[in-house]
From TrEMBL:
Origin species: Neurospora tetrasperma (strain FGSC 2508 / ATCC MYA-4615 / P0657)
Basic and acidic residues composition bias: residue spans: 44-66
Primary localization: cytoplasm
EC number: 6.1.1.12
Top class in the EC scheme: ligase
Keyword Nucleotide-binding on entry: yes
Cell location: Cytoplasm
Keyword terms: Aminoacyl-tRNA synthetase, ATP-binding, Cytoplasm, Ligase, Nucleotide-binding, Protein biosynthesis
A biological process term (GO) from this entry: aspartyl-tRNA aminoacylation
Protein name, UniProt field: Aspartate--tRNA ligase, cytoplasmic
Positions with biased composition (Low complexity): 16-30
Length: 594
């Protein structure tokens, strides 16, 4: 083909006869009509026309030969890469990947993959075209693992063609794709990608699930800090005019930051945000560390019910629902059932499960459903055995996530900046009595707390102020307040034998906010009944009578325990602006979706 482009080809056969035809035609006409030959002028005109047609044919043949030599044709041709790309839905599910190529996760790509073909299934984070023959596609997997993919159209049009390059560059962000390509090293690290030392030279790309052209919330917006946590839906007539208020432009960035309401309305993009995945990963580690520590200390896991026949602890903040011909309730706490396990012969038990509170509190600290990490244990000498066990498991959790989740913590802090979480040195744990905490507030706290008393419960502002004092004075963000006043604790809390005005009950605090309540329980039925009456509760009321009767069925050893709010542990450890960010699907008085 190259030789034909360099020479002058003869006109095609079908184009040769016209050169003689014009001269013959007049002769025929003259024979029939006038009997004269063509004039010289007409003959010259015919010869010039024939030469012109021959030259046009020659040039067309040259152009066609040159195009074929360059690997392309001037007319419509088949896309030789058509089987290497496309939308699977449009292909009726038909697509083919190489059978001998390994599926890999981006986080596992290493030197051993360089020069080898791999298959990756990921989301398209962004795509762009560069000229007509090159496109870049940034691919993302779970955990914000990203890699740069490159497509370059070859002169032969396979395995990558120009139409394939154009297709790849036009894939909507957040579409889910499968690609096949060769792992190579870029000329220099791709700083915008987590997998920066490698890139993927793509030879096949198929859209498995296409994203819409316009997303309700972009990934960039989803990964910005949330500052507005109102989850109240606007009135229908105001929705349009208030829609713009769901977005705010931070001074340091042109990327809009969405409200919590927008995040919850676009839950998929909310959960795809790297910061939310990092928070979720830390949450999972907290649960794992809690479970593994307790199991290593002889605790047995059990599963308390969520659906119960009477209000837990006789409280008013309980969700009621019809249950056939009766009324049922959602458990406010596994407290009674933890004690039933101890009464039933277990020495140490724990549970992880949902807790429900019908409390109409619309604050960043409250949810109507949260996850409780609970334990209960038999005591041998003193209730402080329980305090030390709970302190031990929490310190194990905090040190463990600092070690296991360093990258996730760094990612969260890049979005929600926070001071380093300070832990006490081993042997220097801070344990104050409630009275000592109030004394610190009176002496070193803000002016409004100079008159706090030892027999009143602490408010949230008091807790935060005390947390700031403890951090400054003891260099820690984690501490214990013991011996809470009798009026601030439920009926099952054991009174201090030496001072019945206080209980053998305690709270644990993180950055000045409570994450745990616990203490010794009353295990004597008569003492328990007397306390119930003292608290103004009818000991024969539904649920309460059954609870007291458990302690009459058999002798129950001295015991105690505590309940930890998982969501609060995660939120306050990371110093997030709202506990809602630590929950998978936050439930509030105004929000039941998604």
């Amino acid at each position: 083909m190259a030789d034909s482009a360099a020479t002058t080809p003869a006109p095609p056969a079908e184009q040769q006869p016209p050169a003689a035809a014009p001269a013959a035609a007049p002769a025929a006409e003259g024979a029939e009509g006038e009997g004269e030959g063509p004039s010289k002028k007409a003959q010259k005109k015919a010869e010039a026309k024939a030469k012109k047609e021959a030259e046009k044919a020659r040039r067309a043949a040259e152009r066609e030969a040159a195009a074929k030599a360059a690997g392309k044709t001037t007319g419509p041709t088949e896309d030789l890469a058509k089987d290497n790309y496309g939308v699977v839905k449009e292909r009726k599910g038909q697509f083919e990947l190489s059978a001998d190529v390994e599926d890999v996760n981006l986080k596992n790509i290493g030197e051993e993959h360089v020069g080898k073909a791999v298959i990756v299934r990921a989301w398209v984070q962004n795509a762009r075209i560069q000229g007509a023959k090159m496109a870049f596609v940034e691919l993302r997997e779970e955990g914000a693992w990203t890699i740069q993919g490159v497509l370059v159209a070859s002169n032969e049009g396979t395995p990558v063609s120009k139409p394939m390059v154009k297709f790849a560059a036009g894939i909507n962000p957040e579409s889910f794709v499968v690609v096949e390509g060769t792992v190579q090293k870029p000329l220099e690290p791709v700083k915008s990608c987590k997998v920066s030392n490698y890139e993927l030279h793509i030879r096949k790309i198929f859209v498995l699930a296409a994203a819409p052209q316009m997303l309700g919330m972009t990934l960039a917006a989803a990964n910005r800090p949330i500052t507005n946590f109102s989850d109240e839906e606007p009135a229908p007539e105001k929705a349009a005019e208030d829609g713009v208020d769901k977005l705010s432009i931070a001074a340091e960035s042109s990327i809009p930051a969405a409200t919590m309401l927008t995040h919850l309305d676009n839950i998929i993009m909310h959960k795809r945000a790297p910061v939310q995945q990092a928070i979720a990963d830390i949450r999972m580690e907290v649960k794992d560390l809690f479970r593994s520590y307790l199991k290593s200390h002889g605790f047995k896991e059990f599963e308390p019910p969520c659906l119960i026949g009477a209000a837990s602890e006789g409280g008013a903040n309980v969700f009621r629902m019809p249950y056939f011909d009766k009324e049922a309730f959602l458990a406010q706490s596994p407290q009674f059932y933890k004690q039933f396990e101890i009464a039933g012969g277990r020495k140490r038990v724990f549970s992880i499960g949902p807790v429900f509170r019908a409390e109409n509190s619309n604050t960043p600290r409250h949810m109507t459903e949260f996850t409780g990490l609970d334990l209960e244990m038999e005591t041998k000498k003193d209730y402080r055995e329980v305090l030390l066990m709970l302190e031990g498991v929490l310190l194990h959790i905090f040190r463990g996530i600092k070690e296991r989740c360093a990258a996730e913590i760094e990612l969260v802090r890049s979005v929600y900046p926070a001071e380093e979480f300070l832990l006490p040195e081993p042997g220097k744990e801070v344990r104050l009595t409630f009275a000592e905490g109030q004394k610190l507030l009176r002496e070193e706290g803000p002016e409004e707390f100079r008159n706090v008393t030892d027999d009143e419960d602490m408010s949230t502002p008091q807790e935060k102020a005390l947390g700031a004092i403890v951090r400054k004075k003891f260099n820690t963000d984690f501490y214990v307040l013991d011996k809470f006043p009798e009026g601030a604790r439920p009926f099952y809390a054991k009174l201090d034998d030496a001072n019945p005005k206080v209980t053998n009950a305690f709270d644990f605090f993180l950055r000045g906010q409570e994450i745990l309540s616990g203490g010794q329980r009353i295990n004597d039925p008569e003492e328990l009944e007397a306390r119930i009456i003292q608290k103004g509760v009818d000991p024969k009321s539904a649920g309460i009578k059954d609870y007291v009767d458990v302690f009459r069925q058999a002798g129950v050893p001295a015991h105690g325990g505590g309940g930890i709010g998982l969501d609060r542990v995660v939120a306050w450890f990371l110093n997030l602006p709202s506990v809602h960010l630590a929950a998978y699907y936050p439930r509030t008085p105004k929000r039941l979706l998604p």
